[in-house]
């Protein structure tokens, strides 16, 4: 761990040796955004039917749950923790909504209850990680099974499909005059909230500080435990919200809704430049990465490539992106060794 | 972490020295309780030929995967691709029988194990040489291997009729009342346990997991050990794939999906610390048995099997909380012991 921290710190210092334009443009986030644009352009010119406006509708509806959950997940991963239970929370929130609606509760009440379940679930994760002091990977593997088990246990193999027409229609409705679905609005609001939270508040700087060095952050007065707890609760609540959307979009609450979603979210977040060691990552990269995977899969589906190739590409992209970053760092180290002395070295010679 | 392990071994007072062993013993008692409860409700759970066979047979496959996973976790890494590796080798097994009629069973087993080892080698090389966290790499290969599997198999599935009778018989065959697959799993487990406990390589896994930086400074061959750990995990998942084909007789492209979390869960329940350096493969194997046995016992105990995953989740959380409490208590006693001396 010390070794990682040391490299992270030197990386930050080295970062500030580069001119401003390099720091802004030659980043991993920009590489992902550039790749996204290239893929969109290629898809529009070569894939028949991709350039139609309706593609955007399906694409956004498909990636909406991942987009939503990727926001809190990115923050959690910047602190160096992880939450594997989000996919199960989507399922649990979906089932809670369904069961309560079936029992006669108004949909609004059921949805609020599902959000409350999200808060409680996130708080359980947060409590076990921050108060009991357990590794989040182990905790959330446990709650992954627990939440999914509750969801499947509550509903068995049945499904609730009877939801108010008004709400199911809203989940699929498009903003007047465009093909953009309404779910984009809450997403954009959340995006603004999370961007401000991460990049423009002391709370957000604290998140980076925790990821770089937990001890240093604590000595600098960052509330390490409280910050992490809040983030886990946020992840729970956003996952529950995604669960309600998921239910409405497909008009069906099932125990196995969104199984495996957590891995898709984490893959996208890592692809977007968030370091699994913590301390590094920005939200525009994360959003671009989710969209990149979404665009790729919808373009391939339109090109009649089966979904399995999409899996290979998701996995391949993920591995390639981290390996490329690590090769780049290796090449830089080689150059630093062989090349002319750096500024610091020059300064030390009398 | 180093302190915890070394203390467990130094046997500071019989009571505390036994904590490491007691941990596995606790899981064993839990397993016994589940079996006793289920048997009390329905004697056939243990005392019928089928019940006895299933008790040993069903967990065998997960035991293999969990042992491999345990070795990787002990080095402070994780292998999320085991489910996909298992699926691929299970399909390979079926494919070999279809494409090469009359191929000897032992050749197929070796081919599957070697193939699994190769897939593990890819993981290991990416982790050890590219210095990328195992979690990310194996998450990537989880998708990639599964994708290759679906691409290869398409909507095809290997059916029991495609495989030789001798091979399928292996899935249920018994030797002096014990299923052959369970015997193989037990032998593999015993060898792995001996390797991890008594050989230099085995101890180095623990050293690396306890403190990677210190292991490197001390001159341990960290890269080679990490490679071996992932190769072993892949090979064991490969063997599990053959078992899977023999046991279930039918392999689709989704075989083994989701097993990675069961394997990690089994290891964690069995006392392997996710932060590395702590635990034994026996624990992981007993954890795997407990997971699978609960799965079968719940319906007998009158609980719908839908709740099985919830019980598993509660177990995992209970196990890690227990480990934490034990570690905290041990640390306090150690500090007291130091202050006294």
SSE blueprint:
The complex is a heterodimer of chains A (350) and B (341).
Chain A: H1 2-15, H2 20-25, H3 28-46, H4 53-78, H5 86-102, H6 107-131, H7 136-155, H8 165-172, H9 184-199, H10 202-212, H11 214-219, H12 224-250, H13 261-271, H14 283-302, H15 307-338, H16 343-348
Helix pairs in contact in A: 3-14, 4-9, 4-10, 4-12, 4-13, 4-14, 5-6, 5-7, 5-12, 6-7, 6-12, 8-12, 9-10, 13-14, 13-15, 14-15
Chain B: H1 2-10, H2 14-17, H3 19-41, H4 44-47, H5 49-74, H6 82-99, H7 105-130, H8 134-153, H9 165-172, E1 174-175, E2 178-179, H10 180-198, H11 200-210, H12 212-217, H13 222-248, H14 259-269, H15 281-300, H16 308-340
Antiparallel strand pairs in B: 1-2
Helix pairs in contact in B: 3-15, 5-10, 5-11, 5-13, 5-14, 5-15, 6-7, 6-8, 6-13, 7-8, 7-13, 9-13, 10-11, 11-13, 14-15, 14-16, 15-16
Radius of gyration of chain A: 22 Å
**End-to-end distance of chain A:** 36 Å
Q: How would you spell out the order of helices and strands of chain B?
A: HHHHHHHHHEEHHHHHHH
Q: Characterize the quaternary organization of these chains.
A: heterodimer
The helix fraction of chain B, in percent, is over 70%
Basic shape of chain A: globular
Shape of chain B: globular
Q: Which percent band covers the strand fraction of chain B?
A: under 5%
In the residues of chain B, how many domains can be counted? 1
Low-confidence stretches of chain B: 1-17
Q: What name does CATH use for the topology of chain B?
A: ABC transporter involved in vitamin B12 uptake, BtuC
The top level CATH class name of chain B: Mainly Alpha
User: Largest interface by residue count?
Assistant: A-B, 52 and 49 residues
The number of E-state strands of chain B comes to 2
Query: What share of the residues of chain A does DSSP label as strand, in percent?
Result: under 5%
Major beta sheet summary of chain B:
2 strands, antiparallel
